[in-house]
Amino acid sequence: MTWFHGFLQQDAPPLLAGMFAAIACALCGSFLVLRRMSLMGDAISHAVLPGIVAAFLLSDSLATLPVFIGAAAVGVLTSLLSELVHRVGRVEPGASMGVVFTILFSIGVIWLEQIGGRSVHLDADCVLYGNMQNAIWPEAPTTLAGLLSLEALSTLPHAVQTLAIAVVVNIVLIVLFFKELRLSAFDPTLAKALGYRPALMHAALMTLVAITTVAAFEAVGSILVVAMLIVPGVVGHLFCDRLGSLLIVATLAAILASAGGYAAGAVLNLDTTGMVGVMLGIVLIGAGLIAPKHGWLARWFRRLRLRVATAREDMLGALWRLEELPTTGDTPVPAPAARELKHAVGGGFIARLAFHRLLARGEAVPTGKRGRVSFSGNEARPLFSRILFLSFRGGGGEQRIVLTEAGRTRARGVVRAHRLWETYLVKILGLRPDHVHDTAMTLEHITDDALRERLAKRVDDARTDPHGSAIPEDRS
Amino acid sequence: MMLHLAASATTITPPSAEMDLIRAAFEVLTFRAGANSAVVLLGTMLLGLACGITGSFLLLRRRALVADALSHAALPGVALGYIVITLLGGDGKSLFYLLPAAAVFGVLGVITLQIINTLPRVKEDAAIGSVLSVFFALGIVLLGIANRLASGEPAGLNRFIFGQAASMQINEVWVILALGGIAALIPILFYKELRLLCFDAGFARSLGWSTLALDGALLAVVTMLTVAGLHAVGAILMVALLIIPPAAARCWTDRLWKMVIIAGVFGAVGSALGVTASAVIDDVPTGPAIVLGCAILFIISLLLAPRRGLVARWIDNRRSVARMRLDLARGAMR
C-alpha cells in the first residue's frame, strides 16, 4: 500500500505533531482560561524565547531536557515578574504582563541574532511559525500491522515523540491533581483554608504551560500555541458546566481543529500551521453559534419564544377586554379580524407566530358569520398543508377570532394580574393612575399564579382597578 | 531619497568598524552618522513620542492589550492588500495600499472582539487572546499565498512581524509624521473628554457624552499609530511602545498632563537609545533594541522616581520607622 506508506512517511508526522500539540495545550490551557489568565499563555509563549536560546546555547538542540528546564524557569519568572511590576509599579495586571513579555521577547530576539553563526536550527521564523511541515518519518512501517510494534514507533520524528510525552504528562498531572486544580481555579480562598496550596498550584500550572509551550514550539510556533492554549478551553466552557466534561470537549475541539486545519492546508495547498489557527477560529465561531445554553442561536431562540409568548398573552388580553364591552340583545360579541388582532400587538413576524400559537393551543378559534365556528373549508385539506396554511396566512386575515373556554381562563389570569398590578402601584406605591398602565402591561407577563394571589392579598382583594374596570375573579 | 541598505537590514550598518563605541553613539545621536541612521532615528523618535502620548490614555483606560490584538490583527490586512493589489497589477509593496489594508483589518479585529464579547461565558482576556492568535494565523496563511505571488524577490512582508526599522526610508518618516501627528493631536484636542473617560466613564455618560464614540476615537488613534509603526518595530513589539513609556511615566507623577508629556519624552528617548545601540553594536536588531531602551527607562523609573519609586519608598519607610521608634521612646520616658 504505497499510498498508506507515503501518508505515514510524509503526512502522519506533522498531523500527529499538530494533534498532540493541540491536545496538550488544550488541557493545560483550559485552566488558564478558567482562571482568567489567558493572556499569561500569550505572555509565556513569547517570554520563553530567551529561555530557549539560553538552553540551546548549552545543549545545541531543541526539545531536550535543558531547554525544558530553561522554559519552565522562564515560565515561572514571567508570572513572578508580572506580579512584581503590578505591585511595585502599580500597573494594571494586563499591562504588566505586556511589559514583562515584550521585554523578555526582545531579549530573546537580540540574543538570537547575537548567536547567529551557530543557530542553524533556531531562527526567529522557526520560533514564530514552527516547523511542522518538515517533519518526516523515513522508517515508517509499510503495513498497518507494522504500526503496532514499539520499535517502529520509536523511529517517529523527535518532535512527535516529545509531544506525545507532553500529552501524557498533561493527562497524568491533571488526573492526579484534579481536585486541587479545580479548587484553586474556582475558589482559591477556600483552597487555602482547606490546607491546599493555591500558590504552589499556580506555580505548577505556569510550569506546565511553559513546558507544553516549548514542546509545541517546534511543531507549530509561538503564535499558534496561544490559539491552542485559549480557544479549546473557551469552546469547552461554552458547552459544559462541569470541569471534567469541559476538558473532554476542549480536547475534542483541539483534535477537530488540528486535523481539519491540516487537511484543509494539505488539500488547498495553504500553510498548514496557519490553517490550524484559522480552523480554531472557525470552531470558536461555530461553538458560539450552536452552544446549547449560551450560544447566539440558543439566545436568539429563547428571546423569540419570549416575545411570541408575550404577544400571545397580549392578544388574549385584547380579546378579553373586547368581551367585556357592554352588548345589548342582538349585537353579537365583537370579534376582531385576525388581521386587526395581529396589528394590535405590533404586527410583523412575531405577531403571526403568536397568532399561530394562539390557535394551536386552542385558546381562540376563527368564526364564520353568525357566530359559527369555521375553518373556511380547510378541514378537508391534509394536515400538513393546513398547518402551513394557518401559519403563513393566519387562517385568513378577515376571519373573526373568538376566545375559547381555555383561552378565556388564560386571559382571565392575564387581565387579573394586570389590574391587580395597577391597583398595587397606585394604592401601595402611590403612583398616579395615568402612569401605571404601561408598567402593568410589562409586569403582567412575568407574574405567575402564586405572585398574583399574593398581590391580591396585598391589595385586600380589591374589586376594581384604579380606572374603574372590574378585576376578574380568580377561578384557577 | 533612496538609500543603500545593508544586506540583512535588520540592523543598521555601523558608521565605522574601528570607531570608539561612545564616539560612534554620539555621532548617531547628533544625526551625524550618515543619512540612514538619521532617518531611522528621526522616524522612531517621532513614533516613540506619539506612542507615549496615546499609550497613556490606553493604559489608564485599561485597553493596553486591545492594542496587542489590534497589531496582530493587522497582519492579514497587509498580506491581503499585497495579494489584491498585485493581482490588480499594482505595486503590492507600496505603503499607500498596505497601510490602509492593515488599518481595516485592525478595526475588523476589534469589531470581532466586541462580537465575541457578547457571548456570556467568554471572558475579555480569552476573547483578546483568541482574536489575536486566530487573525495572526490567518495572516500567516495569506502571507504564504503572497510569498508565492512575489515572483523572484523575497517578499519583505515578514518585516511586518518583527519590523525592520533599520531600513526605514524618508517617505516612511513622512507617514509616521503624518499619522503620528494626528495621533498626538487628537488626545490634545479632546483632552478633557478623554481624561474624564479614563477616570470616571459613568459620569461622562451622565453628561451625555458617548463613551462609545470616545473609545472609538481612542481606538482609531491607536490603529493609526499601529499601522504607522508596523513596519518600524513590527506587530509584536508595537504593544511594548504603547505600554512601557506610559507605565514608566506613571511612576513620576499623579497628574495626567505631566504623565502624558513624560511618557512622550520617554518614548522618544527610549527609541533613540535603541536606535543608537543597534547602530553601534553588531547584530542588534533595531526593534527589540528600542523596546529594551524603553525598558531601561522603566526600570530606572521604578527604582528612582521621587515618591512612588522603590528607593524613595524604602527611604520613606525607614524614616517613618525611625519616627515611630522616637515616639515610642518619648512615650516610654514620660
Distance between the termini of chain A: 75 Å
Largest interface: A-B, 61 and 59 residues
Number of strands of chain B: 0
Largest sheet of chain A: 2 strands, antiparallel
On the 0 to 100 scale, the average pLDDT of chain B is: 81
By secondary-structure content and strand pairing, the structural class of chain B works out as: mainly alpha
How many strands, what sense, and barrel or not for the largest sheet of chain B? none
What does this molecule look like?
The complex is a heterodimer of chains A (476) and B (334). The model of chain A is unreliable at 370-384 and 391-395 (pLDDT under 50). Chain A is mainly alpha-helical and 476 residues long. Chain A has 19 helices and 2 strands. The relative contact order of chain A is 0.09. Chain A has helices spanning 2-34, 38-59, 65-88, 93-114, 124-129, 150-153, 158-176, 178-186, 188-193, 198-239, 243-268, 272-290, 296-324, 338-344, 348-360, 383-393, 405-427, 437-443, 449-458; strands at residues 364-367, 400-403. A two-stranded antiparallel ribbon of chain A has the order 1-2. By secondary structure, chain B is mostly helical. Chain B contains 13 helices and no strands. In chain B, helix 2 (35-60) packs parallel to helix 7 (170-189) and helix 2 (35-60) runs antiparallel to helix 11 (256-280). The longest helix of chain B is centred in the last third of the chain and has 40 residues, at 211-250. The radius of gyration of chain B is 23 Å and the shape is globular.
Write a compact overview of the structure shown.
The complex is a heterodimer of chains A (476) and B (334). Chain A is 70% helix and 2% strand. Chain A is an all-alpha fold and 476 residues long.
